[in-house]
């Protein structure tokens, strides 16, 4: 029998797992939220993962269950594990990607560098943290935030009184960083762990816009420290599949862990063309407990640029017409302002040239801001 | 509306067009011969392409019609063209991939080097050609042969009397070649033509077993002559999509055109990992008349090795366990002796190492001959 991987969620990450599943000879089944999803080609079922019977029926018919996103309730996942389903990553790991406060607590107990942080339950507690931080802090809702949503830079606890009415708020030091990086790590249940080369991520308005692989401005010590942090988190939290550790780099060159994602991640799209093993193939190999592939880069430099708003046929053709060196990935989504609709990758020997070409191609057909 | 490419045939070539269609944001629909085909993920229909109403219904609902194989009757394709369907490659080109005698006639009128050839309708005519060739020749059925089928090395016309009973037989010089190469070319209907780097193909028992990109033992003159031949054939025969020109290299270093294929081809699988633009993506771009991509190689050397017989989960896992540097492509086929069930690709800086690793990986789990 062919091994079956089930993916909860029909977004672009599930879509980009399809080619990897085909190459490996795995059967992939996707539980999509809606008809016509990004991953519709392998969407064997359309349903609500928050409905226990829908999720259970889907999960018990696959060999391994994994995810396009981190939103599946962990109590459901615990019940699936109790029923013998292989859930990768498991709920005891996934909770740290769902709940940023739980993540801060957990990471504080292992040897990884963190920004200052605290959990505030009242405006007064938030004010006290802000005072300690010199008048400014970053407030985050522990759950549900992404791409800049659920994040506010505040100078008074009253700025998040609405959030505090709903529950505790994570307060974090506003880090004075010089750049942001992402360390990706693959880990399989039986223990093999493979860190990817560190990449630099360039955010615009809290959303990842560009990724450079490998991260420029790094030393061998930097690179090994980033890999150490990534592997330690993967092992300590028992993460399986792909883990993305987003980090700040301070002016003194130190890393501070910002966010975790336990799935293929926007910062790893660059590896599809840029590395021997794409993050999508690596994720499927890891969650299936198959041998992991090499993360070795194919080129001195690769750059990924997100395509926001629209990646329909017309824009894609314009981009391809601009340069034969550009590889595109459209997500099959209807155009909508600001939406991540696709991405492109350019590789080459000179970073300046690669970056300039990727940016110019990404600007073609882009809606003016 | 999203552009729709329809593919006749559900084999591994159609299967490997699926990731390319997803990346480009094209809708791909496949008319497969059977349920459970290699390309089942996008098999929107199962039916017989030799049935006019089945083919017509499928073809008239897509923006461009293309092929996984060359077997669709050209009279059907002429009728589709007359109805306004964009058939790529068109029947006037495709006939030269279907009928080897027609191909020899056509290529004799343009400036490309061919082996000696003749069409025999009787045993006596076959004997006369064999005599001219010094006692041995290669006989081919003009239609239907592939992977060594429909080909015999003969020393007497009576060796093909069974074939002659059914119709004319193509007689060709038995070329004393030192190696075989394949020149792939992409061409779009509006005329843009992109030749790929020449590759060497290594056949076993008349079947492609290994491909090396770029072809070793070549000079710049060789490379430009191969590209000239490929581009001339593509333009002269009005081929669209991918064209593979298989050629012999003689001991004096000359090329002689052996076979043509007008679709992605086994000798081009190496470009998926080895080049900026895979042959599957290039084919879809070409038949859709979209801008073509760069064929530039990502690595000094890439080697493809076919996996015969079986590429099921167990064998694939063993291969991946052997080396993290191996990329695999399983075709989702049931195991059967001698069947092309998948392939693998290894890339790197040193040909000896890449070739040794690819061969060793390909031997893992292989049935003993």
Q: Brief overview, please?
A:
The structure is a homodimer of 369-residue chains. Chain A is an alpha+beta fold and 369 residues long.
Element-level helix/strand string of chain A = EHEEHEHHHEHEEHEEEEEHEEHHEHEEH
Helix run count of chain A: 12
Mean pLDDT of chain A: 96
Shape field of chain A: globular
The N- to C-terminal Cα distance of chain A equals: 51 Å
Would you kindly provide a written description of the structure presented here, covering whatever features stand out?
The structure is a homodimer of 369-residue chains. Chain A is an alpha+beta fold. Chain A folds into three domains: 4-87, Rossmann fold (3-Layer(aba) Sandwich); 116-172, ATP-grasp fold, A domain (Dna Ligase, domain 1, 2-Layer Sandwich); 177-363, D-amino Acid Aminotransferase, Chain A, domain 1 (2-Layer Sandwich), CATH 3.30.470.20. Helices cover 31% and strands 27% of the residues of chain A. In chain A, strands 9, 10, 11, 12, 13, 14, 15, 16 and 17 form a nine-stranded antiparallel sheet that branches. Chain A has a four-stranded parallel sheet with strand order 3-2-1-4, sandwiched between helices. In chain A, helix 1 (12-24) packs across helix 10. The longest helix of chain A is centred in the middle third of the chain and has 17 residues, at 220-236. Chain A is globular, with a radius of gyration of 20 Å. The relative contact order of chain A is 0.12. The mean pLDDT of chain A is 96. Chains A and B meet through helix 1, helix 11 and strand 16 of A and helix 1, helix 11 and strand 16 of B.
């Amino acid at each position: 029998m062919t091994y079956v991987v089930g993916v909860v969620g029909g977004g672009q990450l599930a879509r980009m797992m399809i080619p990897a599943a085909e190459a490996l000879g795995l059967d992939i089944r996707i539980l999509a939220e809606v008809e016509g999803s990004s991953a519709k080609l392998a969407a064997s079922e359309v349903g609500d993962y928050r409905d226990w019977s829908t999720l259970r029926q889907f999960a018990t018919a696959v060999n391994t269950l994994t995810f396009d996103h981190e939103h599946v309730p962990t109590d459901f996942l615990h019940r699936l594990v109790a029923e013998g389903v292989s859930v990768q990553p498991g709920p005891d790991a996934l909770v740290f990607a769902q709940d940023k406060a739980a993540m801060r607590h957990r990471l504080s107990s292992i040897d990884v560098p963190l920004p200052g942080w605290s959990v505030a339950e009242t405006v007064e507690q938030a004010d006290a943290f802000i005072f300690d931080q010199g008048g400014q802090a970053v407030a985050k809702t522990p759950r549900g935030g992404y791409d800049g949503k659920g994040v506010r830079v505040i100078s008074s606890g009253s700025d998040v009184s609405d959030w505090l009415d709903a529950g505790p708020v994570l307060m974090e030091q506003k880090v004075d960083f010089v750049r942001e990086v992402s360390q990706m790590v693959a880990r399989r249940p039986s223990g093999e762990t493979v860190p990817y080369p560190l990449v630099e991520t360039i955010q615009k308005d809290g959303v990842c816009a560009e990724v450079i692989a490998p991260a420029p401005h790094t030393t061998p010590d930097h690179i090994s420290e980033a890999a150490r942090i990534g592997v330690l988190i993967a092992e300590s939290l028992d993460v399986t599949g792909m883990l993305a550790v987003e980090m700040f780099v301070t002016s003194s060159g130190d890393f501070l862990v910002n966010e975790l994602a336990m799935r293929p991640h926007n910062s790893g799209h660059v590896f599809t063309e840029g590395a021997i093993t794409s993050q999508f193939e690596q994720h499927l190999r890891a969650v299936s407990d198959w041998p992991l592939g090499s993360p070795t880069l194919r080129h001195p430099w690769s750059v990924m640029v997100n395509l926001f708003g629209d990646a329909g046929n017309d824009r894609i053709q314009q981009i391809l017409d601009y340069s034969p060196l550009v590889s595109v990935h459209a997500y099959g989504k209807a155009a909508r302002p600001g939406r991540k609709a696709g991405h492109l990758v350019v590789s080459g020997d000179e970073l300046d040239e690669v970056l300039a070409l990727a940016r110019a191609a990404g600007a073609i057909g882009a809606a003016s801001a």
